[in-house]
Every structure is written in structure tokens, then in C-alpha cells.
Design a protein that fits this description.
By secondary structure, this protein is an alpha/beta fold. It folds into 3 domains: about 25-290, Aminopeptidase, CATH 3.40.630; about 300-350, no CATH class; about 355-465, no CATH class. It contains 12 helices and 20 strands. The strands form 5 sheets. Strands 11-6-1-2-3-12-18-17-19-15-16-20 form a 12-stranded mixed beta sheet, sandwiched between helices. It has a two-stranded antiparallel ribbon with strand order 4-5.
Length: about 475
């Protein structure tokens, strides 16, 4: 194990793919890497760039190999991104540490889209080898990133090309290097965790957070949603932080970011691959980043808290997010093992049925008129608005389109945006629920102003308004 993570790093790394927001966001940093870690299929050696104490006339990049700084990514790529915890101040970094955050990132240059699938750390899966059934976050502690990669591949039958690992101390240093960030805090956050060194005290609303407050925001999980709530905040953070990381002033902080990369990030990606991802990521807009959380439910087993993935819904999510069909063999295996129609659901396209698309509109206090105007416009365009409801302010801070049914795929979503261009810039979140009666939920924010034309609303004349369902299941 000790050879997997050298105690004294000898090279800088590219950060372009660290967490696509911390992965997309760090796309401006695309120069070097550290030695490849063995064990991941497809990994291969790349030139190691040694940075030593240099004479006064020698620059930091004097000995760098000549590489194309703007290579083009010409194929899709799946990267497993992990944030690991610490075993104490004097413990060896990355060794025997659990993955506190796990996210599979799909980068698609053809569709110009990024898919982020968050895998809850407490997901109960069978680990490779003789490790048995355990939480998926233990894979990194038992066998490093190689075992974590294999665990995800075997548990969900998904391909993985590379991995990127950063630890919690590294996140602190990253936030300090980047400086204050403008973040939408969804709700009042107050929580003290002395063991983790956290003292969270944040007010709701759009505000500029200090580096310490940014760390508190992304690590906060003291709410009814627990780890799932933290995952949702991390996904929105990745969209919001990309704007900060594209500021010209960040270029002046490259030395600090290089130091961060050298000490706190490990990856099996080559310098060229990282530069390709960086070049692709610098032009990605928030609406091109699609997020999803592994479907399932929380359950206590033998005194332990687990997240139990739903095999049917997981098949749908991974098929959609990775833009890959499930093989016939895998479909049959899932159908026999779980007795579900996962295969059919995952590969059924939205245009195979003529039934109306069923929608829910969710809005915050003060936005009822905007919601009613949207309802009228949608009914006029042939959609069926089943419910229109006021949600908690904390749940309505971000405009978004939520795909909820097996039918509500990306093609169906794009058609909605084409028919109602006001939704073009809205991000898409995938929250598939088995047998959902609602295809999509449209969530308005306090600042939403759709400016729907009179013509659009007139087209809906004669339609029947939806009935308010304040307790509807979303």
C-alpha cells in the first residue's frame, strides 16, 4: 500500500479534471502530472516532470516537455472522482482512508455535455475479491483507488477510464488559494462538529463566502436529507464555482494551485489526457452539466445505516447519464435477479408513446403568478400539468428541470426546451423514481422571470388549470 502513495511527491499535476467544477472549474490548470499508480486497466506511463530548486535565471517551466497546451478531446471519458477523509494529522496521506465523496463524471465532447452521478458513500454493495458486502466508501480504505474503481465497475456494470482523488485537507487549501466565492446558500445552516473541526453558521441567500465558509457549505449535512442533502449542495456548488474559476485573477494564483496539486491530488491520467479535459471544460456552461444521485433508499441493517441502490432505477440513470445502452446480457441478468423491467425502462425512448407528458410545477413563496403563467403556457403547448405547488424556500433556490420518470430522457427534455426557449439555460437534474406518475418537475426560483409572451399564453385558452396539491409527492 505504501508504494501506491509516495510520501514525497516528485512532480506537479494537471488539475483540469479534479472535480469538474473542481473538475470543470480547474480547467485553466493544465500542465503536469505525478507518476501513474498501477492497477487500473488502461493506465499507461507518461513523462514525469521534476521540479527542483532552480537557479535565479531558470523559470518554473524551463524543463517541461513540449506538449500541445490545447489538445482536443475527441472521445467520451468516464472519470471516478473521489474526496477522501483523513486519519489524523500524522497519518500518511491517502493511505487507508475512506472516500467521503464519490462521483462518476462522464465527459462527452460530441454532445458537449458533462454528466455527474453522485454515489452516496453509504451505498451497500459487494466489494471485489474477498472483501464481502460493505459500504462503497470502504473500498478506497481497503485497496486504494484501484479497488474503488473496480467496486463501482462491478456493482453498477459501468465503464471507468480514469480516477482522480483529493483529500479534505486539499479542499481547504484549494478554497484558500481561490479566495472568496459567490454561492447561493439554500437555507439557514448552523452546526458544530468538534471532531471534524466544523463550526457552520451560514445565513440563506446569494452571498460571497470566505474560503472557510465555502468548506462549511460543501461539508454541511446536518439536515433531514443527511448525506443526500450534502450531495445536492455539492452538485450545485460545482455549477456555481466554475464562474469563479474562470476569472482572470485566478491565473495569478497558479503557483498556489500547483502546490495544491502536488500535495493533495492523485490520478492515473496522463498529462495529455488532463490537458484535453481542461480544454474541453473551460467552455462548459452550467446548463451543460447534468447531475444525478444514485437512486435508492436509506435502511438500517444490523445497526448500521446504509443506502440501498435501486437496481432498476440505477440502470436507467447510468444508461442516460453515460449515454450508453445496457447490453442484452446485463438486461436479462437484471430482469432475472431483481424481477424488474429495468432493461426495458432504461432503453425505452420518450417518442415511443403519444401520451401527454405529465409535469409538476414547484415554486417558492411570492412566485405563484409566475408559476400560473408557466402552467398556462405548458398546457397550451400540449403538456399536462398535473400539480402546481408551493415548495419550501430551501428547495426552490435554483431553477431546474428534474427528470423523474423512466420516460423523461434527454430527448424529451430537449423538446421541452425547444418548445419553451425560456427554459433553455435551466440545468437538468436526474432524480428517477420507479413507477413515477410525473415525468418532470419544473422548479422556479425566487428570481425566476420567464417573460412569457401573451401569444404563448393565449395558445392555452380553454385548458383546465391544475389543482394545487400541497402534499404531492415530488
Amino acid at each position: 500500500m505504501s508504494s501506491r502513495y509516495p510520501e514525497s511527491p516528485t512532480a506537479l499535476q494537471i488539475l483540469g479534471a479534479t472535480l469538474l467544477g473542481v473538475l470543470v472549474g480547474l480547467s485553466i490548470i493544465h500542465f503536469t502530472k505525478r507518476p501513474i499508480f498501477p492497477g487500473v486497466p488502461g493506465a499507461h506511463p507518461a513523462p514525469v516532470i521534476i521540479v527542483e530548486d532552480a537557479p535565479a535565471k531558470q523559470t518554473l517551466f524551463s524543463n517541461m516537455p513540449k506538449i500541445n497546451l490545447l489538445p482536443t478531446l475527441d472521445h467520451s471519458m468516464n472519470i471516478l472522482c473521489m474526496g477522501v477523509d483523513s486519519n489524523g494529522r500524522h497519518a500518511q496521506r491517502f493511505l487507508n482512508t475512506r472516500s467521503d465523496t464519490m462521483m462518476l463524471v462522464h465527459i462527452d465532447p460530441e454532445l458537449k455535455r458533462v454528466g455527474l452521478v453522485s454515489i452516496p458513500r453509504d451505498s451497500r454493495v459487494k466489494l471485489p475479491g474477498a472483501h464481502g458486502i460493505d459500504k462503497i466508501n470502504s473500498a478506497h480504505a481497503l485497496g486504494g483507488p484501484e479497488l474503488a474503481v473496480e467496486a463501482v465497475k462491478e456493482a453498477f456494470a459501468v465503464p471507468i477510464d480514469h480516477y482522480v482523488v483529493v483529500d479534505t485537507e486539499g479542499l481547504k487549501k484549494l478554497f484558500e488559494a481561490l479566495g472568496p466565492m459567490e454561492i447561493m446558500v439554500e437555507k439557514r445552516m448552523r452546526y458544530r462538529d468538534r471532531a471534524a473541526g466544523l463550526h457552520v453558521d451560514l445565513e440563506p441567500g446569494l452571498q460571497t463566502l470566505s474560503p472557510k465558509q465555502v468548506e462549511e457549505y460543501v461539508r454541511f449535512r446536518h439536515d433531514p436529507k443527511g448525506d443526500i442533502g450534502r450531495i445536492e449542495r455539492q452538485q450545485w456548488f460545482m455549477r456555481q464555482v466554475s464562474k469563479k474559476l474562470k476569472e482572470p485573477a485566478v491565473l495569478l494564483k497558479l503557483p498556489d494551485l500547483f502546490k495544491f496539486a502536488n500535495e493533495y491530488v492523485v490520478t492515473d491520467m496522463t498529462a495529455e489526457d488532463m490537458a484535453k479535459v481542461a480544454n474541453f471544460g473551460k467552455d462548459i456552461q452550467p446548463q451543460q452539466v447534468q447531475t444525478a444521485t444514485l437512486p435508492g433508499h436509506a435502511e438500517y441493517i444490523h445497526g448500521g445505516s446504509y443506502w440501498i441502490p435501486d437496481p432498476e432505477a440505477c440502470s436507467v440513470v447510468f444508461s442516460r447519464m453515460l449515454n450508453e445502452k445496457i447490453s442484452v446480457a446485463e438486461q436479462e441478468e437484471k430482469r432475472q435477479e431483481y424481477g424488474s423491467d429495468a432493461a426495458t425502462a432504461a432503453t425505452t425512448y420518450s417518442d415511443e408513446t403519444d401520451r401527454p407528458v405529465k409535469l409538476t410545477i414547484k415554486y417558492p413563496k411570492g412566485q405563484e403568478q409566475e408559476a400560473r403563467s408557466l402552467e398556462t403556457a405548458l398546457n397550451g403547448l400540449g403538456y399536462k400539468v398535473r400539480y402546481i405547488m408551493r415548495g419550501d424556500m430551501a428547495d426552490c433556490q435554483h431553477e431546474q428541470i428534474v427528470q423523474m420518470s423512466y420516460r423523461a430522457d434527454n430527448a424529451l427534455t430537449e423538446r421541452l426546451k425547444e418548445k419553451l426557449p425560456q427554459l433553455t439555460t435551466w440545468p437538468v437534474n436526474v432524480m428517477v423514481e420507479p413507477h413515477s406518475s410525473i415525468d418532470m418537475t419544473l422548479i422556479l426560483a425566487p428570481c425566476t422571470k420567464l417573460s412569457l409572451s401573451d401569444k404563448t399564453e393565449t395558445e392555452a385558452a380553454g385548458t383546465t388549470p391544475a389543482t394545487d396539491k400541497t402534499k404531492a409527492h415530488i
